[in-house]
């Protein structure tokens, strides 16, 4: 095959549409906190509720599922209707432990904060699907990450700020209201939003990160909790097992190997390794077996990786706020030049050209273009 033909195949691989995965959902009780803040008689409230097929008041079945994409969009719409741009942050900082229902006693009686957060994250997977909650420990600190896997669910500013603020509020209730994290990062641009965010978290806050992250000192995580009683351990284990079985979501329908691999790549891009050997091991098969099974579906590992990279690149570039160097790191490239070459092969244009177009369309044409200078300076 000629070099030109190979490049065309690569571009087509990036553009090819993935098989539709199962719909992302979350439990209905997450909507209750939003709906309760909206005045029932206001015309805009009624219109918003009707648009998203919701009703005023609390859900009759708080554990019923609701589409995650519609939830994120409704959260953004509610913030607009209420003229509360920090709506998600406000709800998060007012979160109270007992609002998570029967899981509350497990958190309140955990031996350490680390154990309490482990329980919380375990049940998070039952409350909300298609979401990655990551934990990484390094240099005396632990990084807790949160991200919705589907990049088509965007914007999701209110959900992200609500989730991290809620986690911070939870920790302050377990430790002390004076507690503060080491650092907080958000996947969205926080330009113009820094003040309220820093006032609540009381620590450095940044945006355009690969995930929504809260950094916590290991000393805080491993300090014994005052409410811990050693005799609680057997009872806690029994309660947790029963609750997890009751709240466990229905098993996913059978998904093909390409679909499962696409989801893994999407979850790990810019956060963890996405090499063939690692992902094959997670899927429980040898790399050669994975290659063979992908071949039976007429696809390959590189095709799926390129497709997910392109999908995420186009979504983040459309915001007009991310730097090309940041995007290259998010997508797992060693440097900006390698990403720029790949993006041009896929789309026929440079990422800077796509970024400029996005900025023009959303009124950010005057934003600094420092990455353009860096790109031109590179060989």
Structural description of this entry:
InterPro entries: AraC-type_N (IPR032687), Homeodomain-like_sf (IPR009057), HTH_AraC (IPR018060), HTH_AraC-typ_CS (IPR018062). It comes from Sagittula stellata (strain ATCC 700073 / DSM 11524 / E-37). The protein is of the alpha+beta class and 379 residues long. The protein folds into 2 domains: 3-17 and 256-377, Orthogonal Bundle (Arc Repressor Mutant, subunit A), CATH 1.10.10.60; 85-246, no CATH class. It is 53% helix and 9% strand. It has 19 helices and 7 strands. The chain has a 5-stranded mixed β-sheet. Strand 3 (131-138) and strand 4 (141-148) form a beta hairpin. Helix 1 crosses helix 15 (301-317) and helix 5 (87-93) packs parallel to helix 8. The longest helix has 18 residues, at 157-174. The radius of gyration is 22 Å and the shape is globular. Residues 1-20 and 371-379 have low confidence and may be disordered.
Give a quick summary of the entry:
The chain is built from 19 helices and seven strands.
Task: List its salient traits.
379 residues, alpha+beta, Arc Repressor Mutant, subunit A, 2 domains, five-stranded mixed β-sheet, two-stranded antiparallel ribbon, 19 helices, 53% helix, globular, disordered C terminus
């Amino acid at each position: 095959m000629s070099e030109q033909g190979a490049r065309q195949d690569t571009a087509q691989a990036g553009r090819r549409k993935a098989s539709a995965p199962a719909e992302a959902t979350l439990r209905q009780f997450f909507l209750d906190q939003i709906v309760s803040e909206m005045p029932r008689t206001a015309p805009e409230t009624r219109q918003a509720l009707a648009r998203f097929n919701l009703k005023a008041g609390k859900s009759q079945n708080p554990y019923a599922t609701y589409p995650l994409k519609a939830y994120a969009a409704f959260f953004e719409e509610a913030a607009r209707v209420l003229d509360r741009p920090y709506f998600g942050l406000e709800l998060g900082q007012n979160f109270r432990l007992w609002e998570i229902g029967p899981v509350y006693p497990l958190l309140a009686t955990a031996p350490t904060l680390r154990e309490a957060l482990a329980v919380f994250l375990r049940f998070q997977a039952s409350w909300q699907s298609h979401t990655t909650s990551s934990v990484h420990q390094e240099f005396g600190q632990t990084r807790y990450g949160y991200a919705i896997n589907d990049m088509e669910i965007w914007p999701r500013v209110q959900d992200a700020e609500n989730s991290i603020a809620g986690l911070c509020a939870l920790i302050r209730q377990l430790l002390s209201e004076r507690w503060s994290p080491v650092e907080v990062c958000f996947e969205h641009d926080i330009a113009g939003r820094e003040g309220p965010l820093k006032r609540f978290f009381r620590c450095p806050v940044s945006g355009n990160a690969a995930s929504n992250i809260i950094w916590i000192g290991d000393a805080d995580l491993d300090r014994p909790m005052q409410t811990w009683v050693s005799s609680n351990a057997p009872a806690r284990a029994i309660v947790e097992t029963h609750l997890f079985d009751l709240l466990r979501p229905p098993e996913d329908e059978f998904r093909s190997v390409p679909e499962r691999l696409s989801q893994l790549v999407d979850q790990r891009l810019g956060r963890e390794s996405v090499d063939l050997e690692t992902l094959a091991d997670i899927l429980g098969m040898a790399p050669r077996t994975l290659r063979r099974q992908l071949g039976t579906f007429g696809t390959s590992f590189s095709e799926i990786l390129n497709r997910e990279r392109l999908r995420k690149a186009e979504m983040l570039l459309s915001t007009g706020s991310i730097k090309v160097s940041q995007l290259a790191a998010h997508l797992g490239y060693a440097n900006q030049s390698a990403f720029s070459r790949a993006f041009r092969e896929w789309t026929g244009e440079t990422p800077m050209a796509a970024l400029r177009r996005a900025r023009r369309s959303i009124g950010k044409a005057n934003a600094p273009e420092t990455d353009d200078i860096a790109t031109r300076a590179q060989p």
